[in-house]
Design a protein that fits this description.
By secondary structure, the protein is an alpha+beta fold. The chain has 16 helices and eleven strands. The N and C termini lie far apart (74 Å).
């Protein structure tokens, strides 16, 4: 195992180089001190802004104290990987056509959890080949980890007013992952923020979930409503969701820094099953077997068929009234799931009001 400062610096450079060969866009390294972020995180939880995401609170301060989550951790290797798919249908065009289903760009391909975890494990294996056995644990949006704070400290970008990480060279269309380790690697310097007076992300949010710069009330966020929330979507928010049936990209689409976003080099994140340009009616016709087959290996699979139908029913309720839309909703009117029936009834009532 390397013993000198020069060797640790050399290893850090090797890790960054290996990361690029594995498909990561950038690698940074930081320490475990998140004391500056801890009060804000505690207050966010205290305000109830995490909604039904109990996992955000149940681990206490482990989220802001990496060494308590993984004893022995002294460094975090933070990695980002671009995901913007090439040749996807223009997001604005899809969202303006109420017949179509808008799916967040990150979910058009394979499940990023699996892709990044696999690559981070490979990177860890490469480190082990160099230094021998060492302590580490790999994370990708899968544990109590403050990914954006760590990535910011590691110099990968700055936290935007929408709370996502922003990079001058890549906007925000990327995933983050981490390796918690006991290796005393040299740390990188954070970079300053560059949002200035811009409030584009705050102004564009359909549900006004960004209640202040750098503060999101998840209970109003469409990504939360369509993915994290397992129960009924509050009625007053349903019309604001439009045709966004899985996630929401509005704050990213309007961000000026995404002029510099990079198209992914990873085939895993290319569009699958035509999900970038597909009708609400077609998706609503999928039975559970079809959903499971087509969504296997996708992040969407995690929400399950019932929640998928719930989201689509809201989208259909917001769609222009056509015989196809009404027929699709009527077909699910007596669905076995009370959750689906409720949202279908709401959707049909929306069209009744339009007549």
């Amino acid at each position: 195992m390397p013993q000198t400062l020069n060797n640790w610096e050399s290893l850090a450079e090797d890790i960054k180089r290996w990361g690029v060969t594995l498909g990561f866009s950038q690698i940074g390294i930081t320490d475990t001190d998140l004391s500056a972020a801890e009060p804000h995180h505690r207050e966010w939880i205290a305000q109830g802004f995490h909604g039904a995401m109990d996992y955000m609170a149940k681990h206490g301060d482990k989220r802001t104290r990496p060494a308590e989550l993984v004893p022995g951790t002294i460094r975090i290797i933070s990695a980002r990987m671009d995901y913007m798919p090439p040749n996807a249908r223009d997001s604005e065009v899809v969202m303006q056509d109420s017949r179509l289903a808008f799916i967040s760009r990150y979910a058009l391909g394979r499940d990023y959890h699996k892709v990044l975890r696999n690559r981070l494990q490979k990177l860890s294996d490469m480190i082990a080949q160099q230094v021998g056995e060492f302590g580490y644990r790999v994370f990708t949006d899968s544990a109590p980890v403050l990914e954006v704070e760590l990535a910011q400290k590691a110099g990968l970008g700055w936290r935007g007013k929408h709370t996502l990480l922003l990079s001058r060279n890549a906007g925000s269309w990327f995933f983050l992952g981490e390796i918690y380790t006991d290796l005393p690697l040299p740390i990188d310097k954070p970079i300053s923020g560059h949002c200035g007076k811009c409030t584009a992300c705050i102004d564009v949010c359909p549900t006004q979930a960004i209640i202040a710069p750098y503060q999101v009330d998840a209970r109003r966020c469409i990504s939360y409503l369509t993915i994290e929330l397992k129960d009924s979507i509050p009625e007053h928010l349903r019309p604001l969701i439009g045709n966004r049936v899985y996630g929401c990209d509005d704050c990213q689409l309007t961000c000026p820094w995404n002029r510099f976003a990079q198209v992914t080099q990873q085939d895993d994140f290319h569009v699958r099953h035509g999900l970038d340009n597909i009708s609400l009616v077609e998706l609503f016709k999928w039975d559970e077997v079809t959903f499971n087959e087509k969504m296997a290996g996708s992040a969407i699979y995690r929400i399950g068929h019932i929640q998928w139908l719930r989201n689509l029913a809201v989208g259909l309720g917001n769609a222009a009234t056509t015989p196809e839309v009404i027929e699709a909703l009527e077909h699910r009117r007596n669905h076995p799931s009370e959750l689906v029936r409720e949202h279908v009834a709401w959707a049909l009532n929306q069209h009744k009001k339009k007549r």
